[in-house]
Design goal:
transferase; DNA repair; DNA-binding; globular; mainly alpha; two-stranded parallel sheet; Arc Repressor Mutant, subunit A; phosphoprotein; 2 strands
């Protein structure tokens, strides 16, 4: 547990409720991952997540079905979202994800087991996957 102050939390009384939820969720993700399952997911108002589309379906499916410390292939996610032949479209959905980490596109990997690309850079994707794996292992022991 880090004792460093959270700069985003300074002036927290001025934050809107969704921003407070987002801050609490991200703090838990990095510092107390076991809590993320019990925290409310912040409200998402991005237009991409409002209109009915395969991208929206994929992102919500990912958020709902692929848990902390798990990974799924593009093909598996296409299957879960209702179109087993749309693995390439899943890649497009990951590229257009407006809120990475909250909607965990880093958990989507290639069928070969390679991590694949990530908008935040491949080293960041590898770090996030490693962070989740290590934290999940800690919870099991």
């Amino acid at each position: 547990q880090s004792s460093a102050a959270c700069e985003v939390c300074e002036g927290a009384e001025e934050m809107t409720e969704p921003l407070k939820q987002c801050t609490a969720w991200l703090h838990a993700y990095f510092c107390e991952p076991a809590r993320t399952a019990s925290l409310p997911v912040p409200a998402f108002h991005h237009p991409l997540l409002q209109r009915d589309s395969f991208t929206r379906q994929v992102l919500w499916t990912l958020l709902r079905d692929v848990k902390f410390g798990e990974a799924v292939s593009y093909k598996q996610l296409a299957d879960l979202a209702g179109n087993s032949r749309a693995a390439r479209a899943v890649g497009g959905a990951m590229r257009s994800n407006p809120i990475p980490i909250l909607i965990p596109c880093h958990r989507v990997i290639r069928s070969s087991g390679q991590t694949g690309n990530y908008g935040g850079g491949n080293l960041m994707k590898e770090w996030l996957l490693s962070h989740e794996k290590l934290q999940k292992e800690k919870l099991l022991y």
